[in-house]
Amino acid sequence: MEIKEMENVYKDIKKLNDIKLIVFDMDGVLLKNRNSWDVLIDKISGNKIKRDKMIYTFDYLYRHNIPAHLYNSLRSGNMARYLNLNDISPNLHMTMEEIKKMGIKTAIVSAGVHEFAEYLGTMYGFDYAIGNQIDTENMKIVKNVDPLKKDYNVRLIQKTFGIDKDETLSVGDSFMDLSMKRASRYFIAFNPSNVEMLKYSDFSVKSNNLFEIIKTIKWNIH
After folding, report:
1. CB under 8 Å, gap of 24 or more: what pairs does 185-188 form?
2. Which of 27, 163, 166, 212 would be 112's cystine partner, CB 3.0–4.6 Å?
3. Is residue 192 part of a domain?
4. CA-CA distances (angstroms) from residue 180 to 32, 58, 111, 135?
């Protein structure tokens, strides 16, 4: 029995060593703030909307839309300019450099603001980035990522790069991100919003320092 258990551990370590794709959530992982939609609405409203914090989640906006008068601000320029660079999680650059050295593909799959994900993807060299968008011409929200079905996006990325589930690791901070686990061999709970997530995660990082992800991967490889 003990020999069999050791064989299983060895197989798991070998599989981690063969990871070819890491998929990151954005809000609460790459960004310290857990809700980029709340950030965007707060910025374009000039911080003048009186509301309970975090009311403007993606689900809320998809159902109720953005207040019509705020679309004028969204037409005025690139929405990425509303991203606060101080909100980027510590050591993202160093983390991405280390992942590139390992020859691993990287992707962002977020129910947050697509322009934020796209900006981070370009700035830090992600191979793929997708979020939910605002169609300013038709004044509506476009759902590219269903928060509860992120595995769909992960599978599209895998198909694009010719990578399978056993070669994929995903990273998220919320219960909704666990949907990525359906298409991933491993899931890392990064600075989880709910301790209950730990029951369903393969590894956890209780910090907002992204480089702890690298330490977690290397520790479990070696």
Report:
1. 185/15, 185/16, 185/19, 186/16, 186/19, 188/213, 188/216
2. 27
3. yes
4. 20, 18, 12, 26
What is the tally of structural domains in the chain? 1
Provide the greatest CA pair distance for the chain.
67
How far is it, in rounded angstroms, from Cα 143 to Cα 133?
A: 7
Residue 95 inside a domain? The answer is yes
Residue 44 confidence (pLDDT)? 87
Q: Strand 140-142 vs strand 128-135: parallel, antiparallel, or unpaired?
A: antiparallel
Separation in Å, CA 12 to CA 17, 42, 119, 220: 9, 44, 34, 9
Residue 208: CB atoms within 10 A of its CB come to 16
Domain membership flag for residue 213: yes
The CA–CA distances, whole Å, from 28 to 74, 175, 184 equal 24, 12, 19
- The percentage of residues in the chain with a pLDDT greater than 70, rounded to a whole number, is 87
Statement: residue 11 has pLDDT above 60: no
Specify the pLDDT at position 52: 54
Q: What is the pLDDT of residue 32?
A: 95
Phi and psi based region of residue 167 (left: phi greater than 0; alpha: psi -120 to 50; beta: remaining): alpha
Cα separation, 117 vs 100, whole angstroms: 19
Please name the residues in contact with 158: beta carbons below 8 A apart, sequence gap of 6 or more. Answer: 21, 164, 165, 168, 183
Range of the domain at 181: 2-33+88-221
- What CATH number does the domain containing 194 carry? 3.40.50.1000
* Segment (H or E) for 152: helix 150-161
